[in-house]
Fold:
Amino acid sequence: MISMKRCLTLCLVFAFAGAAWALTDRREPSRFDTKVIADPSAGLAVAAIDVRSLPQGDLLRSGWQSFSTQNGGWDAYVDQRTGLPTLASGHGIEWFSGPGNTLAPGNAPSIEQLEALARQFIESHALLLGNGRAELVLDR
Structure:
């Protein structure tokens, strides 16, 4: 008689073997496989670069240092291929009045006003954030 432990082991093996088989590439090799040219932009960067590790006179480094000073301290890591941020973190930036910030009390902004503020922010920091303003679409 099969022990409970052995039965459970066999069940797990069969359960995961099916999942592993489902993840395999089942297509037949094509005569064009040797002609495929990989898109170099499709690869991921090996590592993000801390902007503080860029050379002292680098425009991107000085831009992030200025941004950090103006906005209460920020850290940024950029993609080594594009110079665009992969991670930026720091203190909140006050765009409109509300609890927890120092701006004068006022009315809550509309979604259109928030969109305009975001586009203005991106445009004013194009060196750091890239020039993708035209690609942004507000998802209502």
User: Anything to note?
Assistant: Helices lie at 4-22, 59-70, 111-124, 126-129.
